[in-house]
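Aim 2 progress. For Protein FAR1-RELATED SEQUENCE, the working sequence is reproduced below.
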Amino acid sequence: MLKQHRELSMSIRRTIENNEEDGIRPSKTYQSFVAAAGGHRELNFIEKDVRNYITREELERFSAKFWSCGQQVAFREQAERESDAADFHTVIPCATKSSIEAQFQDAYTHAKFREVQAQFRGKANCITRLKNSALGYSIYEVGEQVSRSIFNKFAVTYDSVAAEVKCQCLLFESRGILCRHALSVLSFEQVSQVSPRYILERWSKKVKRRHTHIKSSHDEPLMEPRSKRFDQLVFRSQNICEFASESEELTAILHRTYDNVMAEMEALKAKRKGRSSLSHEDANLESVNELQSPPRIRTRGRPKNRLGSKLEKQIANATKKKKTKILSEINVFDAASAAHSNSNQYQGHVMNYQLRVPAAGDSSLGV
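Predicted structure tokens for this construct:
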């Protein structure tokens, strides 16, 4: 059957897709079509067409998913840049006069600070009462009014020596935010600043994102020189670290030099504060470009020599030689066995002829 005459109907395609989802092999699917049609000649397609259709459908689904993932990454990168610019150039006003809220306002991003601010607003519905205190360790009972006549009670412990506060609701342990009950106790204790352990770095707007130094096809042209400088510094620093790790003296020299260089660079950065256009602190909404597709890069195709091809050839040649040797030994053994069996048969015929006794009426012997 010619290729232009082979065609899969809509019902056939739907059946193939359903069987593929159920894990049925293409050969079984084709055999079911043959059985339903009454023979191979009754079908206007072959088994290869079924396999090609499955491969083509899988490729189309993979391409769609890959394109969707690329678009999602681009959207998220664009949203991240816009939120960074908004975090550094706009300020959300505090809901209360608390210095702790101002501390979170200065450290956290807008999205996370809104969640913290909701806890400060909810602090107005809490009533704090001291139950026990000894050696700087206090136990409080915080009642939260959830309706006109219903109060939920929570036990909150505060250690003034270690500056630690812990609530029974475990909101900080689950979401990384101090709850309204803990904030109410801190206000009762007249604490002006919380411990740095309660300001998580992952929510900070000043966090250093290491993935921004890695070269990507989504990067703006403005970011390419920075990525190149980063790659050069990483390469040279690796060589320096390998050389300095040979002895303690070289390591100490590298540490001293590193401290001096860091101090010099920080001083220079302080003088040029606000001039660098590549840092997150100096990003603005005007510098953020519209969402664009990644640049099209022409590929070179499959390499002529794959990695490991030489080793595969050596293994294949050794296996082939081993099989050839085994087959030759088997052929020699079969030939020897056949010759031995033929010799035994010939000797048997000779012995039968020599030991044959003439019959009484055998006229050929003249008896």
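Strands lie at 126-134, 137-145, 151-159, 164-167. This observation will guide construct design in the next reporting period.
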